[in-house]
Amino acid sequence: MRSNKLNVFLIILILSSCLSVYGSYSFSDVTPQGRNDKYAEFVSMSQRKCVFDYDILLKGDNGNEVLIITGVNYQYDLNTLAQEEGKYLYRVQVTLNSAGDYTIIITITDNGLPSEKLISATCTSPPSFVTLKKFSDYLGFSYSSVVSAADPFYFFQIPEFIKLQAPPLIGSFQASTDSYESIRVEAMTSNIYKVTLVLSPTKLWSDILNNVSITVVYPNAPGYLTPLPPFASFIDSAANNIIAANNILLADNSNVYTSCLYSRFEITKSGNEKPFLMYIPWSPIQIPFYPFLLSQNNTDPNLIQETYFTSISFQDTFTSDTFSFRYLENNLFTNVPKTVNHLSNIVPFSRISDSSNYNISSGVATSSFITTMGPNFDYSIDGENYSPMGSTAPLYLAEGNMNSFTIELCAFVSPHWSSFKINYYDKLSQGLSHTFTNLPGPIDSLPPILKQIELSTIRNYLIIQMNISDNLSGFKFLNTDLWSSKNLFRGNFKDGLYEIVIDLNQYILSSFQSFIPYDVVSNSKTTFLTDYLTIKLDIWPNMNIEASNITNVRFEHSELDVSNQAKNNILYISYPFEFKDIKPQIYNINPLTNLYYYIRPGEYDEAIGAFKFNITVPKNYISGQYSYSLSLSQGQYLDTFQLQKLFGSQAGFTVKSTLGDIMGPVIQILSLTPSKSVDIETSMAYTNITWRFNVIDSINGFKNGTIKIQSGLDLVDYTFFISPKNGLVSGDKYSGIYEITIPVNSKCKSQEFYMRYAYLYDENDFISFYDKFYNYPFQTPFLTTVDMKTFSITTNCIYAQQENVAPSLISFDFYPKYIDTTYSGVLNELNPRLVTFDFVTSDESGILLASLPKIYLHQMSSSPIFQEAVLVSSNETFASYQCKFEIPYGFGFPNGIKVSLFGIVDNQSNFKGYSTDKLPVNEIQVSPVLNLNISIFSTSGLSIHGGDLILFGKQFGGLDTVIFQDKDFNIIRKLTPKRSTVTLIELEGIPSFDMEYIYISVERAPLVSNLYKLDLKDYTPPPDSSSSSSENNNLSSDSNIPNNSPQPCLNQCSDHGDCTSNGCVCRSPYIGLDCSSQVIIVPPKINNTTPESNFTIPTIDNNNVLYAIISVVALNELDNNNNVLNRYSFDKWIVSNNTQSRYQQYTNSTGYIYSASLKNNNDQSITNIGVSIDYFNINEAINITFANQQLQMNPHSLKYSINITNYSFKSSLNSLQLVLSASIESDHNNDECSSKQIGDVVDSESEFIKMQIDKNSLYGRFIKRGVIDGRVKYVTNTLLDSEYNAIETTSKSQTFIGINIPFYSRLAQLDPDFSILVDNRPASDNDNAVCGARKSKLTGAQIAGIAIGCAAFVAIIVTSTVYYFYKKRQTNKFNADIKNKMKNLN
Fold first, then answer.
1. According to the UniProt entry, which residue ranges have a biased composition of type Low complexity (predicted)?
2. What is the pLDDT of residue 1029?
């Protein structure tokens, strides 16, 4: 009995347990509202069907249930959208094969036990007969002021359609047509459709002017809808206004060498109507091109002149192509065909040998091959495509030259790949593949999981926070690498929180239609934004306008005249108040670049119930209907003309301009100097080759641009930055002459120097762009040039000692070797992510100094980043470099960074590169823990008037305080953010600051961010602070400029000066502490390629000749302990005649202006250095004023004026140091005495240095003040002889002087000058004299001296001789040595 009771109890217990499992879950139909609100589809005239998609969420009560949908009582498909423990989100697609009401039964198993759930559904047939309501009797046509043609369209409405989802429709022509290819029907709302008639590129368009009849029907249901009445032709008869047309392309059967052909069409028309133009390739690919209107002359409304442009890309296999320019004239189409012969440059893939290897310990996969095919191939690593000619060049060019070279690819590979490929392929996709399968694993085959997402907006920024996990390799990026693992702010890549900020002025939301998270080994999963994004049912809110909710569209102004000035207009889109928080966008696309010219988000104005969009039309825009587009959801849009069809003409506005111009600047080559083919003689160290060209932008004006010349054998790039303020020889911004010069070393190999690319902007930022190796649909600056080979110069080198030995790496190291890439420092702390690389290279033929090697940094499974090194020092066979590399935030986290080095080239065009596994030290270790300290990366703009500000960074919080400091770090304001997220802070009500810049930091005790410098807009510098430093401006002056200590009056001032309490004040033309040096006439030789001056000086006894050289050597950034942080050498100068010299009345000769641009190692900004040289060939001294100090310019002096523009310092405690070199040398090697003296100057706050050889001296004067940001400030001078290895022998005295420029923001101004003097005492009189074996220290002899004086930051150096007789006996060897030394000084 007891046993039976126990059995019953056990049965009850088991049943209870089963019942607790069965049904222990929740069932939710979470299908988004409206998804299945649609009509049945036509299967045939007698059958309908409905296909409904249901989202079903199953959620277990215990968290360990296995919940599976195992059946549906109708035809179905099942897809798992998301799942986690105990939660399942399924997509069930059910097909109902006839109209009617249904009960859908879904069977679910819960840990193996089945249950059923019910869903009700109704399948509704569409209306049988409906009314098609047209919005217009005419076809629409998108004739903007820029694009000349597009496919015609029209809109219609079917009021009887009341379901939310519009049924699909198809269109057809009622009769055959010789003009159109097809009809495209798109639903814009639930019952409004757009029909597009696609023009045919293969037909003759003989009936294009006829009416066209169209039928729109349900799919599979012909005749079910009422046919539309016939439409008149979209071409207005008034468009028959072309008076003359000219297709400027090529003559028939011309040869084309490029893979991209640019063509212009010039027309004259009789009225404002747009002409109908098309450009059609007839073979072998028949796709029409619509030419773009670039410029327009409306000065005569009856004879309007217009220039159109288009570009056509050739496939490399094409050999002959025929194109037709087609336009409407007298109601007939005129076709102008032309045939071109494309000379293909395909080089078949070839290799001499290849190899591959994977290093398990380092995680580096290496692939290499040797080829003779030149740069005519591409390669890919982990799906990332590269090219020897790409932006990362010369990455992976390991050894050789373009005749034969080795490619060596290294990839930092995740161990979780199943296999990893490196591919090489030519233009025909033929090539070589290396596959790596021996990775240690474990293999990652699962995509990342989007676990949670939250969205918010602050102003025009969309903030997305996500929780993403990945099982093994870790999350890498989302859709684009702009949104990637660098956005991590908590956790790690296997389970982390990320925040992305999207600027709605930069990104069109409607183009973002899905989430596709990728992990490091490229696993991914696509989730459409119309679906639930996570198991938590997170959704992507619709932030775009729905066309069905728009009630009106209008502009504030119906017409704008933008002749010579930009003007604003406002677009109003009336929209219901309930949607005021969405973020609608309009945009304008530049047809020449296919890039957004602008994107404008709208702001809701509650007073008028409409979104407002501000539009600025640039000056001199093309006349006609202004083109813009309104972004809709799912990638759809409505352009100006479509909106006008729906809402009337007020939905657009007209632009007027006397002269219209969206054309970028144009280049016309003028001359190649010395010629197109140049013999490089060995008798000269260098031979200059020069391109002289005209930059034309006759309406808007040329703003700036970049020209890159490349040498074809060694692939060295020579980059020149030009603008009307930099490198202009003559003319102005509308038509200016420019020259770019490359010095070719005499030890060279023959090769071609060609135009690599040109990138030019006009003052409206319209661009013209050319790239030799890539086809871009941009307007080329070479519109008037057919064959770009006319721009190339070939050098013929006759150097006898030809060799193919690559340069070598003598030493390589960097520090630190461990960094935290997620830390930005605290306040003024030097950037903790800065890594300094130092290396030395060598080659017997000499290192090509024009080629700056590049340091490349590689993080796991990602594209490398790189930075050029700077030249520190060099001689005939060695070159020493340094690279200050600021590692981007988060780069290399957490797996570390691999290092490689490429781009070392010798004078014989042999290049050398070192991949990661070839360097002696090759890895930067990175902290694997995410740093939570606050970082500021950037800000929005702020003017001196104050206002609102946005900070961007990392690890912001709700309790932050934003601190503002002035230039002296005094706190001037503390503010609490209005709103903030992890990466963005919004500030309002910032007061005005009448200062050039401020410092910003964020504090949340105990955390403090780095200090961020913000330049304020609209700051007005002190009067005349930007004018020449040589004018008497009565500038404000610092009070801490010291005076020199008094000096004794030596030798009674040699009877050439007056003895004062401060020392001897000399009378012109005498100079020196005892006034014993006299200015005489020795004309300098001014270098026409670099700011260097040379003097040839005879000696008293005429037994030897002295040479003096003065050079601008380098620019260094120093920290507050005078340690060099960044070194910049002056490798390339742009030279022009100084036609605007302030001293023309004194010089009577043509001086030069030298311009150089330095790329800042801190933030890649550009600092420009301008040097002008004037020779004062006058017989009397004159007075000038510099830095509030009157200076006497001696007769026959040489004056340097130097301006250095804004430099982005790492810290406000840092300074710049301009390095000068001066030397004097005799052609006798062992028979001399040399000495060097340093001291203070009496008649100005200056220092001097005197270099002397026997009876000749070189005298330099350095003034201790300069004009810094318009204010006179104290500067110091430092002797750098030990740092730069100055030479001091019996026959040569050399010095390097550093002029230390204090921290500044805008401009540092320098004015050195040079004179020739006679001095009196031999070098042997000095205690520090270095004498030859046959030379004793004598006294009392008269010494011929050279005095060089430097006013401002730079030296005033004066050189001189007593006699006018020059030595005729000079050895050839000594002259050659001097030329080489002059070269090395540059």
1. 1025-1040
2. 37
Residues of the chain with pLDDT > 70, as a percent, come to 84
pLDDT at position 1083 over 80: no
261 token code pair: 């052909």
DSSP per-residue string spanning 193-237: EEEEEEEPSSS--TTTTS-B-EEEEBTTBTT-SPPPPPBBPSS-G
CB atoms within 10 A of CB 526: 12
User: Which segment, 134-148, 893-907, 1146-1160, is predicted with the most confidence on average?
Assistant: 893-907
Q: Among 416, 505, 630, 302, which residue's Cα sits nearest to residue 950?
A: 505
Q: How many CA atoms lie within 13 A of 1216 on its CB side?
A: 26
- Interior CA angle at 206 toward 201 and 210, to 5°? 110
**Per-residue pLDDT band at 315 (split at 50, 70, 90):** low
- C-alpha to C-alpha distances, 1348 to 507, 1153, 1360, nearest whole angstrom: 58, 20, 9
Q: Residue 1368's pLDDT is what?
A: 33
**pLDDT digits 0-9 by tens, 1234-1250:** 888 788 877 777 787 87
The answer to whether the beta carbons of residues 1304 and 1275 sit under 8 Å apart is: no
CB 1226 within 8 A of CB 1106: yes
Nearest to 667 by CA among 628, 639, 707: 707
Which tokens is 368 given?
């290499």
Q: Which two tokens stand for residue 1343?
A: 């010494």
CA distance 81 to 89: 5
Model pLDDT, residue 135 = 83
With contact defined as beta carbons under 8 Å apart, do 357 and 377 qualify? no
**Which DSSP symbol is given to 1052?**
G
Task: Give phi and psi for 388, each to the nearest 5.
Answer: -60, -20
Residue 262 Cα distances to 256, 291, 684, 772, angstroms: 11, 11, 41, 13
**Segment (H or E) for 1144:** helix 1144-1147
- pLDDT band, residue 239 (cuts 50/70/90): low
Q: Which tokens sit at 1233? A: 């005495």
**pLDDT tens across 18-31, in order?**
333 345 889 999 99
Are the C-beta atoms of residues 728 and 740 closer than 8 Å to each other? Answer: no
Q: Which of 1090, 1132, 1127, 1096 is nearest to 1111 (CA)?
A: 1090
User: What tokens appear for 1282 in the block?
Assistant: 């030990």
Q: What is the mean pLDDT of the chain?
A: 83
Q: Among residues 1045, 1048, 1058, 959, which one has the least CA distance to residue 1007?
A: 959
* CA–CA dist 493, 454 (Å, integer): 19
Tokens of 595: 């890039």
Angle at 904 between CA 902 and CA 906, to 5 degrees: 155
- The answer, yes or no, to whether residue 259 has pLDDT greater than 70, is no
Task: Indicate yes or no: pTM above 0.85.
Answer: no
Vertex 80: Cα angle to 77 and 85 (nearest 5): 145
Token pair, residue 1017, equals 């807009």
Bridge-based pairing of strands 1215-1226 and 1292-1301 is antiparallel
Closest CA to 1259 of 1218, 1208, 1219, 1224: 1224
Per the listing, tokens 């090194």 go with: 869
Our measurement of the distance from residue 711's CA atom to the centroid of its chain's CA atoms, rounded to an integer in Å, reads 23
Give dist(CA 1108, CA 550) in Å, integer. Answer: 79
Closest C-alpha among 902, 694, 868 to residue 707: 694
* Contacts (Cβ under 8 Å, ≥6 apart) of 1114: 1127, 1128, 1129, 1130, 1218, 1219
DSSP 481: E
